[in-house]
Amino acid sequence: MYFYGTQSVNELGHLTIGGVDTIDLAHMYGTPLNVYDVALFRERAAAFKETFKNVGVRAQVAYASKAFSSIAIYEVAEQQGLSLDVVSGGELFTAVSAGFPRERIHFHGNNKSFSELQYAFDEKIGCIVIDNFSEITMVKDIAETRKEKMNVLIRVTPGVEAHTHDYITTGQEDSKFGFDLKNGQTDEAFLQLHDHPYLELLGMHCHIGSQIFESDAFCFAAEVLMKKMVAWRDDHDFVCTVLNLGGGFGIRYTEEDEPLHPSAYVEEMAKVVLSMTRSHNYPVPEIWVEPGRSLVGDAGTTLYTAGSTKEVPDVRKYIAVDGGMSDNIRPALYGAKYTAATANRIEEPHVDKVTLAGKCCESGDKLIEEAFLADPTEGDIIAVFCTGAYGYSMASNYNRLPKPAIVFCENGEHQLVVRRETYEDVVRLDIPLQSVKREETV
Ligand SMILES: Cc1ncc(COP(=O)(O)O)c(C=O)c1O
Ligand SMILES: N[C@@H](CCCC[NH3+])C(=O)O
């Protein structure tokens, strides 16, 4: 059994997280339940920050909160001295609701609306990462009308094809994100922004994709952007003070995954930046990174209750749980792989091969095609590991399933941080038919 972070086993043979018995949690809060190991999040955050300190560069580590956005996780991020990457008015509102320091909020997105951008100005956030030409027009318009300053970065697609699922690569030229580096769009964006009276161009941003293991791809992206920064200095006498290299650091979902320690990726990138600054006599920029998955992914575990089983003779045994693609779309969307365990008998041999199915009305709603569990039977609590990133944040009410509750565990204590949706929540936006007149039919 592979344990993440503070996971362990207690005297009852139950899985514990943050020193709390997961079976107690399942009984107290119900299932499906997302449980976060807060100490692991803190450890990861500290490791990123420590790495930059050791390498000797100024840095901001921004939590890419699309991975899991809630007021409580923003509060923990704040406590850890992280910055915050938000990608919508809704995430910004969550940050504001958490009282997150505005100057450490960075706003991303390939189609920010005028009102979202105005909201960013209202809140005087730290930086807008500009993605396209219409955004330049809008941001200039807002800044000039209000006569207000705003820091901006230019998002660039550096032409790096990282090895990951097609849906989560973003650094290649044919991407909906950012300005292309090779065809001149990035330079054009630079010319439109670099001497604006209200917009403070800090530098460049790139993010090559998600769940990437090879550090070469990150280092290559750093090199490509540094070269462009040097060219702007040489041609326009403009020095970038910030280089944002995004997130995307891969984590271990199953034993097939062999990531480096998350902070090792940033160490290598920082070294590339330092060596380029030395060889081009360039002032060392502040490096920003945006880890999402590598901060919260393995800190999250989902607890389900096992329900019906079905044997397809000589083919497989299905065991269904009380959630599925509604709380974790990743297996259905990306073919993502996970591991699981029978949390109430965690020490027994996990040798029974089953397909862990969800309860949604879709044949593709399988959480794990080949799960090895300890003789799973109805009523068992099944823990699916590593669900902390892009699980709850991509959850839906498909089949009108209420979204799960979320509990934080740390030092033997637990706290509900997102309550479970009720059936009333599920219909809260519905408006019953009232005034539509029907033609009388005879
Ligand atoms: C711009 C940007 N930054 C950071 C991230 C975080 O990525 P990850 O969760 O893989 O670290 C993403 C998502 O892929 C992103 O689009
Ligand atoms: N949602 C994706 C990652 C996309 C990251 C956002 N750019 C996943 O679950 O792996």
TrEMBL record:
Coiled coil: none
Enzyme class per UniProt: lyase
Modification type N6-(pyridoxal phosphate)lysine: residues: K66
Domain Orn/DAP/Arg decarboxylase 2 N-terminal as annotated: residue spans: 41-296
Known cofactor(s): pyridoxal 5'-phosphate
EC number: 4.1.1.20
Binding site for substrate: R293, R330, Y334, E362, Y390
Pathway linked to the protein: Amino-acid biosynthesis; L-lysine biosynthesis via DAP pathway; L-lysine from DL-2,6-diaminopimelate: step 1/1
Binding site for pyridoxal 5'-phosphate: G248, E290, P291, G292, R293, Y390
The UniProt record lists the keyword Kinase: no
GO molecular function: diaminopimelate decarboxylase activity; pyridoxal phosphate binding
Entry-linked SUPFAM superfamilies: Alanine racemase C-terminal domain-like, PLP-binding barrel
Family classification: Belongs to the Orn/Lys/Arg decarboxylase class-II family. LysA subfamily.
Family matches, as HAMAP family: LysA
Role this protein plays: Specifically catalyzes the decarboxylation of meso-diaminopimelate (meso-DAP) to L-lysine.
This protein's name: Diaminopimelate decarboxylase
Source species: Sporosarcina limicola
Taxonomic placement: Bacteria, Bacillati, Bacillota, Bacilli, Bacillales
